[in-house]
Design goal:
This protein is mainly alpha-helical. The protein has helices spanning 2-19, 21-41, 48-54, 82-88, 92-100, 113-117, 126-139, 146-155, 159-167, 182-186, 192-203, 218-226, 232-239. Helix 4 runs antiparallel to helix 5 (92-100), helix 7 (126-139) packs parallel to helix 9 and helix 11 runs parallel beside helix 13. Residues 23-30 and 33-41 have low confidence and may be disordered.
Length: 245
């Protein structure tokens, strides 16, 4: 008798579930799709200029997101002028378009030095940074301290930035905070970007054997730290290449 009652209860539950299917079935079928769509669509919220810099494909038409009105309107969190954001993203095409649409570097917070300090992705695509720096040169925008610019660009392993600093009058052997010269920063590791930056500095006249008042030479420090790594020979060659006369 108990089995019969239990079977009838189960049957009743199944019938009730199917009878109410029109109400809950769409939630089960479409609920996950709605949730995923909401999450995926979230990346398309925000400033059109910032989305353009991020390379987000949000189904917009062929008309550019950059307008004369938006070219100087701060974007991002914390907000910064679009030109500085373009430099941070190392996007030369957007930087060029912003200038063409009326973007004014002098309106950016911390102008002019912060513009150069935000070039933090240069080493990944140095040719893009080179185009941006060339645009700044044409506009007559220069760092207020070429030696400081050299040290900051050496830290970022940015070859175009190093070349720019020297063209603006930087001393390639200048000693920065902590008694470190530019070469001390580019010889901390022996990856491709470090080797390229080191080679650029030496080509421009930096001396890897020069000691500072506080530290050993860049060559000695690098040798002590890296002589057993696979790329040491390449880094050493970069430090011992002929220098600019």
């Amino acid at each position: 008798m108990r089995k019969l009652v239990r079977s009838m209860a189960i049957l009743a539950a199944v019938v009730t579930a199917f009878a109410s299917a029109p109400f809950w079935l769409p939630l089960i079928v479409y609920g996950p799709l709605i949730a995923v769509s909401s999450v995926l669509g979230g990346h398309c919220r925000g400033s059109p200029v910032l989305l353009l810099l991020k390379g987000e494909d949000c189904g917009r038409n062929s008309q550019s997101a950059i307008t004369h009105e938006s070219a100087n309107e701060p974007v991002g969190n914390p907000p910064e002028c679009p030109l500085v954001q373009a430099i941070a993203f190392n996007n030369a095409a957007v930087f060029r378009e912003l200038i063409a649409k009326g973007g004014k570097p002098e309106l950016c917070k911390g102008f002019p030095d912060r513009i150069f300090e935000r070039a933090v992705n240069c080493k990944h695509e140095p040719e893009q940074a080179g185009k941006i720096f060339a645009e700044l040169e044409q506009l007559g925008v220069r760092h207020t301290n070429a030696n400081q610019l050299l040290i900051s660009q050496a830290k970022e392993l940015c070859v175009p930035g190093i070349e720019l600093a020297v063209s603006q009058g930087a001393d390639v052997n200048v000693v920065g905070p902590g008694g470190l010269a530019a070469l001390h920063y580019t010889t901390r590791v022996a990856d491709a970007a470090s080797i390229a930056a080191t080679s650029a500095l030496v080509r421009l006249g930096a001396d890897p054997m020069r000691r500072t008042s506080e530290t050993e030479s860049a060559y000695v420090q690098a040798h002590e730290r890296l002589h057993n790594v696979g790329n040491w020979n390449r880094l050493e060659s970069a430090m011992t290449a002929p220098t600019k006369k």
